[in-house]
Design brief:
Helices cover 44% and strands 22% of the residues. It is an alpha/beta fold. The protein folds into 3 domains: 103 residues, Beta-Lactamase (2-Layer Sandwich), CATH 3.30.450; 157 residues, Heat Shock Protein 90; 127 residues, Response regulator (Rossmann fold). The strands form 4 sheets. The protein has a 6-stranded antiparallel beta sheet with strand order 2-1-6-5-4-3.
C-alpha cells in the first residue's frame, strides 16, 4: 500500500512537472510545496530555494494593484484570480512580463495553484507589428508629400535657373534669382529627408548589401531627429560628414540602427546633453574597417545592465509597452553586414557605441568639370508634371539639343516608335500614372536594346535601383538643376559615342 501511494505521488509530480506552464503549489498556509522546472527558469530560483518559502517571497509582482494572497487571505479566495501582463520580479531583481492565474484548492482550505507564463516575447512582437503599421503609414504620407513637393520644386528650380541665366550678373535681380535657387535647393534637401523615411518604411526585411555613403546616412538620421532633440536640449557634434569613407551595409537598416542609438541616447539624457559622432579607419588583417563612434553624455549603465543590452527583449523601463529591442536590432543588423558592435559605459559618465563596418572597395571621386558637347541631338523628355517637363525642355534647348515632349508613358512609347531612329537619348520620370517609368523603360528597350535612357525620380538612387531592372544608363534625383541635368546628358552622350565607336570598329 505504501509502495502504491509512493508511486502515485511520483506520478503526480511527474505530471505536474510536464505541464507546459510555470507552476507553483502551496499548502493552506501559503507555503510552497511544489515548483516545476519552468517556474524555476522564469523565477530564476532553484527548487531547494523555493520549497518551504512563503509564496510572496518567491512570486512577487511589480504592479501595485496585483496583490498576491497571503496566509491570512488564502481562505477568502473562492475563485481563480487572473493577472494579465504583469511584471514578475525575479530573485535577482530583473523583471519579466507574465500572464498568471492563482486558483484555490478546495476553496483555499488546501492551498493554491499558481500557473504563469512569460509573455514578454509575444508582447514585443505585437509591439513591433504595431510599430511597423505606424511606420508604414508615416512612410506613405512622407512619400506622397515628398513627391508632390518635388514636382513643385522642379518647376521652381527650372524657372529660377532660366531667370538667372537671362539677367546681368551681380545685379540685384540676378542675386535674388540665385537666392530663389538656393532656397529651393534647401527645400529639396527637406524632401529628400521625407523620401528617406518613405524608403526606410518600405523595407520589408530583405537585406541588401551595397556601397553606402556613411556620411549621408548619418546626416539623414540626424536631420530626422535634430528638431525634437533640440527641444530636449540635446545637441549633435560631428565633423565633415562628407569626407567619411563609404562602407558595405544595408542603407535602410543602417538608418534604422542610427535612429535606435540616437533615441536610446536621448532617453539617457532627460536633462539634455550632447551626442558626439566621429569615425576612424582601422586595419583588420587584409580588411579595412570604418569605425563609427557615437558617444553620449547620459547617465550611463551599470555592468549588470551592460552585460544584457544585446539580449532580446531586455529593457530597463518599467512600462509593459517598453520592450528592449533597439540595441538587439542594431547588433543583429551589423552582424549581417559582417561587422561588430562594442559598447562602453559607466554610471554618470555616458555611453560610447562603436560600430565596426567593412570599408567599401570602391570610393567616390570628385567629378571633373567638362563642357557639354552637343551636335544638335534629339532627346525625348517624358514627365507627367508639366512644369518639370517645361523647365527640362527649356534647359536642353538652350544647350543646343532638339527635344520631343511626352506627358505620359503611352505617348512616350508611341513617339519613340515614330522617331526612334533620331532619338539619341530619353529622359524618363519613374513615377507616372497609368504607364510607369519602369514600363516605358522596358518597352523602349524592347524596341531598341541599345537605347540610351536616363531615369528621374524624387526618390533616391538606391530606392529606384531596387525597383528597376537593369537598362537605364543614368539616374537623376529631383529636383534637378541645370548643371546636374546637362552633366548627366553629357555623360550619356559620351557613353553613347563610345559604344558607337566600338561598334564601328
Amino acid at each position: 500500500m505504501e509502495t502504491s501511494t509512493h508511486n502515485q505521488g511520483n506520478r503526480a509530480e511527474k505530471v505536474l512537472g510536464s505541464v507546459p506552464y510555470a507552476l507553483l503549489v502551496t499548502d493552506r498556509r501559503g507555503v510552497i510545496t511544489f515548483i516545476n522546472g519552468l517556474a524555476e527558469e522564469v523565477l530564476g530560483v532553484s527548487r531547494a530555494y523555493a520549497i518551504n518559502r512563503p509564496l510572496g517571497d518567491v512570486f512577487r509582482l511589480a504592479n501595485p494593484e496585483a496583490k498576491i494572497p497571503s496566509t491570512r487571505t488564502i481562505g477568502q479566495l473562492k475563485a481563480p484570480k487572473f493577472y494579465r501582463r504583469s511584471f514578475l520580479v525575479k530573485r535577482n531583481g530583473d523583471k519579466t512580463l507574465i500572464n498568471a492565474s492563482i486558483a484555490p484548492i478546495d476553496g483555499g482550505h488546501d492551498g493554491l495553484v499558481v500557473l504563469f507564463r512569460d509573455v514578454s516575447k509575444e508582447v514585443a512582437v505585437e509591439r513591433m507589428n504595431l510599430d511597423r503599421q505606424k511606420i508604414d503609414a508615416i512612410g506613405n504620407m512622407a512619400r506622397s508629400v515628398g513627391l508632390d513637393f518635388t514636382r513643385l520644386l522642379g518647376g521652381i528650380v527650372g524657372q529660377a535657373s532660366s531667370i538667372a541665366d537671362n539677367l546681368i550678373p551681380n545685379t540685384r535681380a540676378h542675386e535674388e534669382a540665385l537666392q530663389i535657387l538656393s532656397t529651393a535647393k534647401q527645400a529639396g534637401a527637406l524632401t529628400k529627408r521625407l523620401l528617406s523615411i518613405a524608403k526606410a518604411s518600405s523595407s520589408k526585411g530583405d537585406m541588401k548589401l551595397e556601397n553606402v555613403a556613411l556620411g549621408e546616412v548619418i546626416s539623414d538620421a540626424i536631420s530626422l531627429v535634430e528638431g525634437s532633440f533640440a527641444e530636449r536640449k540635446i545637441a549633435f557634434k560631428f565633423k565633415a560628414l562628407e569626407t567619411i569613407p563609404h562602407i558595405v551595409a544595408d542603407s535602410s537598416q543602417l538608418l534604422d540602427c542610427l535612429m535606435n542609438i540616437f533615441m536610446n541616447s536621448a532617453d539617457a539624457m532627460p536633462n539634455g546633453g550632447a551626442i558626439t559622432i566621429d569615425t576612424m579607419e582601422k586595419a583588420d588583417g587584409n580588411k579595412r574597417l570604418v569605425v563609427l563612434r557615437i558617444k553620449d553624455t547620459g547617465k550611463g549603465m551599470t555592468k549588470e545592465v551592460l552585460d544584457q543590452i544585446f539580449e532580446p527583449f531586455f529593457t530597463t523601463k518599467d512600462s509593459a509597452s517598453s520592450v528592449g529591442l533597439g540595441l538587439t536590432v542594431v547588433n543583429s543588423s551589423v552582424k549581417q553586414w559582417g561587422g561588430t558592435v562594442k559598447v562602453r559605459s559607466k554610471v554618470n559618465h555616458g555611453t560610447t557605441i562603436r560600430i565596426f563596418m567593412k570599408k567599401a572597395d570602391v570610393q567616390p571621386h570628385a567629378a571633373k568639370e567638362v563642357q557639354v558637347r552637343t551636335g544638335g541631338e534629339t532627346i525625348l523628355v517624358v514627365d507627367d508634371d508639366s512644369e518639370t517637363l517645361s523647365s527640362t525642355v527649356e534647359t536642353l534647348v538652350k544647350a543646343g539639343f532638339k527635344t520631343i515632349e511626352a506627358h505620359d508613358g503611352d505617348s512616350a512609347v508611341k513617339l519613340f516608335k515614330k522617331h526612334g531612329g533620331t532619338i539619341a537619348l530619353s529622359i524618363v520620370d519613374v513615377i507616372m500614372p497609368d504607364k510607369s517609368g519602369k514600363q516605358v523603360l522596358d518597352e523602349i528597350l524592347a524596341l531598341n536594346p541599345a537605347a540610351a535612357i536616363i531615369m528621374t525620380s524624387g526618390f533616391s538612387r538606391d530606392y529606384v535601383r531596387a525597383h528597376l531592372e537593369k537598362g537605364a544608363w543614368g539616374f537623376l534625383q529631383k529636383p534637378v538643376d541645370q548643371d546636374q541635368l546637362l552633366g548627366a546628358v553629357r555623360r550619356a552622350m559620351d557613353q553613347r559615342s563610345g559604344d558607337n565607336a566600338t561598334g564601328a570598329a
